[in-house]
């Protein structure tokens, strides 16, 4: 087929392997690590800006309605207070939707409890906070009884046409084994450690904005759009980001408010959200309700596959948690029905939270697979092995690479999985039931356009520049490694500059695409540098061997450059090869849990993840991503849940004391196996996304282990003690 021919055409996609410098893939520590752990890396709010005012956001105390009047006079006489900004751009244009344009919500309208409606600016933070608390706001509030708040009781609308093949209902009735199960998952918060913050400076013509954001390449467009300022008059800086997990994909109110205030007042303004504000007005992951219908023949081969999900969002928002994303291709079956629907309710915007879609879709699917395995009397690992498709079941595209089977086998072996007949409630230690469970992992591979500039300096060092961000993922590390590998330099000789829109547009950090996308741009730039160097030596680029600062034999790079810097920009645009394949990361989770027979408390004793996600650029940062993902899996399985007041819809648990992310005590020894894989069709550097895969199914493995331990089949996540009992 054509895809195969394209693979065979001359291509540079194996170049990194030819370099043999031993820099790429190595578990090197982060160059930014020492500054971070010593507290000297400046995060957004840390920047010392002279003459800076402090702004505190005021948020709505009604669910839906209009701001009728804001009594600015009531606080303007308070000490230190400079201004009350209630510019309609705060309610109209600042939202966290996604790329490029901030979605328009109607000006002055309130759509959810906790929505920012004004900014109080003062000389000090304490003065601003005091005045913000005392600001009198009058609302025209809609009657609570008219406002849809409950996603279960609100009629949904279909998100798209869905996928329909064959006759699922018939498959269900004619199958040897079938399950028809409904699961619920509750909302999640991103809960990044660094709260949302911005400092804006306006010189009358140009804005300089420090902000904590994931996607500067899009954020600058969103901000220009929200403020009606030209993009070229804005400089966005975000060198260190204390976690994002989706919550900083788009701009939000603190950034817009700081800019509006700085432009109006002619002084720099800093706005830092409180933890409560981050929870109340930064996006949530939607709760879900999911129906799984699985029909299998006597051998456990799926003949019917149904996955229908309901999610929610505010009216007018485009995003719908893509619950069925990997269900589209994970298992083969002829009769298929996949359909997503959205209920419009008045909670804060629902958006991307780490691994949008699979984070909640995969656990439900994998829990249902466990029930099917039990009914069919087939080992759960074996059931999955029997249902791996050889191409995308509905689109027909081949997979770029596919390591699910290897992950299942290697994971089972390393974990010591017992493939004998399974029966719950077989092992007890004191008051604890002990059990094991497993699940597949899957997450789509995303890839984005990206640019980066690489300069080979006359002194023999290299500089990599892009407005790409490092949200704690290791971008500084891997870009230095790619350039070092390509140019024959140790990473100490490669300086990486990120997070400034004056640099070439990167891909931004999101959807696990960052490393493969912007890494490919650095690769392309280095390739061009290699061609220019080869020209100088008078040989073909293929024959050029760059090593330890030499260009072969005794020819030193510094002599070859002869006082001149060489600079090239790399522009990577996915397409030619990528479009012909279905690309995804795959893996397998294995978990051992203990469940207390009196309290219903669940503890994860042991967890193992085996993953295949293309080339590993840095073993240490890649492993850390997997550990982080598995930690999120444990949170989603056992504790994390946004709780809304049923009467007025406000978020009840809006801090880290009440929204329970796992702490060290909750995380057992976690083992990560990275299955060797190269994927030339996924990206020029043969890498796929890594960041999110670790939480795509893991909660399902824990659900299945809970059943094995104590015999409780649970259909609600998180599986808190009250539900286990
Ligand atoms: Mo991710 S949830 O796209 O940062």
From TrEMBL:
Residues forming the Aldehyde oxidase/xanthine dehydrogenase a/b hammerhead domain are 38-143
Residues spanning the signal sequence: none
Q: Which InterPro entries match?
A: Ald_Oxase/Xan_DH_a/b, Ald_Oxase/Xan_DH_a/b_sf, Ald_Oxase/xanthine_DH-like, AldOxase/xan_DH_MoCoBD1, AldOxase/xan_DH_MoCoBD2, AldOxase/xan_DH_Mopterin-bd_sf
* Matches recorded under PANTHER family: ALDEHYDE OXIDASE 1-RELATED (PTHR11908:SF132), XANTHINE DEHYDROGENASE (PTHR11908)
| Gene3D superfamilies, alphabetized | Aldehyde oxidase/xanthine dehydrogenase, a/b hammerhead, Aldehyde oxidase/xanthine dehydrogenase, molybdopterin binding domain
| Record keywords | Molybdenum, Oxidoreductase
Molecular function GO terms recorded: iron ion binding; oxidoreductase activity
| Protein name, per record | Xanthine dehydrogenase family protein molybdopterin-binding subunit
Q: Where is this region: Disordered?
A: 146-166
């Amino acid at each position: 087929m054509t895809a195969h021919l394209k693979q065979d055409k001359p291509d540079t996609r194996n170049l990194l392997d030819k370099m043999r410098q031993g820099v790429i893939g190595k578990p090197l520590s982060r160059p930014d690590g020492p500054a971070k752990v010593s507290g000297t890396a400046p995060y957004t709010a840390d920047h010392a800006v002279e003459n800076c005012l402090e702004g505190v956001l005021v948020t709505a105390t009604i669910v839906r309605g209009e701001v009728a009047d804001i009594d600015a006079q009531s606080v303007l006489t308070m000490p230190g207070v400079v201004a009350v900004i209630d510019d309609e751009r705060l309610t109209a244009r600042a939202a966290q939707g996604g790329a490029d344009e901030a979605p328009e919500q109607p000006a002055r309208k309130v759509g959810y409890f906790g929505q920012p409606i004004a900014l109080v600016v003062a000389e000090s933070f304490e003065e601003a906070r005091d005045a913000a608390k005392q600001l009198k706001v009058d609302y025209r509030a809609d009657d609570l009884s008219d406002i849809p708040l409950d996603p279960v009781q609100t009629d949904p609308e279909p998100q798209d046409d869905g996928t329909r093949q064959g006759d699922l209902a018939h498959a269900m009735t004619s199958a040897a084994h079938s399950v028809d199960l409904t699961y619920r998952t509750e909302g999640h918060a991103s809960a990044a450690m660094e709260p949302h913050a911005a400092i804006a400076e306006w010189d009358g013509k140009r804005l300089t904005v420090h902000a904590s954001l994931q996607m500067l390449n899009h954020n600058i467009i969103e901000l220009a759009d929200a403020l009606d300022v030209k993009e070229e008059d804005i400089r966005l800086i975000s060198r260190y980001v204390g976690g994002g997990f989706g919550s900083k994909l788009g701009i939000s109110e603190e950034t817009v408010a700081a800019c509006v205030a700085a432009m109006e007042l002619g002084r720099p303004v800093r706005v830092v959200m409180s933890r409560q504000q981050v929870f109340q007005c930064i996006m949530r992951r939607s709760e879900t309700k999911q129906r799984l219908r699985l029909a299998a023949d006597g051998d456990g081969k799926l003949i019917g596959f149904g996955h229908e999900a309901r999610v929610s969002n505010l009216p007018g928002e485009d995003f719908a948690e893509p619950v069925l994303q990997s269900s589209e291709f994970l298992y083969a079956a002829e009769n298929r029905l996949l359909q997503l629907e959205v209920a419009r309710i008045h909670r804060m915007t629902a958006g991307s939270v780490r691994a949008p879609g699979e984070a909640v879709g995969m656990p439900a699917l994998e829990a249902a697979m466990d029930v099917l395995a039990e009914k069919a009397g087939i080992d759960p690992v074996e059931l999955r092995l029997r249902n791996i498709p050889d191409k995308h079941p509905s689109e027909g595209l081949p997979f770029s690479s596919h390591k699910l089977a290897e992950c299942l086998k290697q994971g089972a072996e390393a974990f010591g999985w017992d493939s004998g007949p399974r029966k719950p409630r077989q092992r007890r230690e004191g008051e604890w039931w002990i059990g094991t469970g497993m699940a597949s992992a899957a997450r789509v591979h995303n890839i984005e356009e990206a640019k980066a500039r690489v300069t080979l300096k006359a002194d023999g060092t290299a500089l990599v520049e892009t407005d790409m961000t490092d949200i704690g993922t290791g971008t500084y590390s891997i870009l230095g490694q790619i350039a070092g590998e390509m140019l024959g330099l140790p990473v100490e000789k490669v300086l990486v500059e990120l997070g400034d829109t004056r640099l070439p547009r990167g891909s931004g950090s999101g959807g696990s695409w960052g490393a493969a996308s912007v890494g490919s741009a650095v690769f392309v730039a280095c390739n061009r540098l290699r061609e220019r160097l080869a020209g100088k030596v008078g040989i073909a680029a293929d024959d050029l061997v760059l090593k330890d600062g030499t260009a072969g034999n005794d020819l030193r790079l510094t002599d070859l450059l002869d006082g001149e810097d060489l600079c090239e920009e790399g522009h990577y645009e996915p397409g030619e090869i990528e479009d012909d394949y279905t690309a995804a990361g795959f893996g397998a989770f294995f978990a051992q849990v203990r469940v207390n027979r009196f309290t219903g408390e669940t503890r994860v004793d042991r967890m193992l993840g085996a993953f295949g996600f293309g080339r590993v650029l840095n073993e240490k940062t890649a492993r850390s991503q997997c550990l982080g993902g598995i930690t999120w899996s444990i949170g989603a399985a056992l504790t994390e849940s946004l709780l809304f007041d049923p009467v007025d819809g406000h978020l009840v648990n809006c801090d880290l004391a009440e929204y329970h992310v796992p702490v060290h005590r909750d995380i057992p020894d976690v083992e990560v196996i990275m299955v060797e894989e190269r994927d030339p069709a996924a990206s020029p550097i043969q890498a796929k996304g890594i960041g999110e895969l670790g939480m795509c199914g893991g909660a399902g493995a824990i659900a299945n282990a809970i059943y094995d331990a104590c015999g409780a089949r649970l259909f609600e996540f998180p599986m808190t003690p009250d539900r286990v009992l």
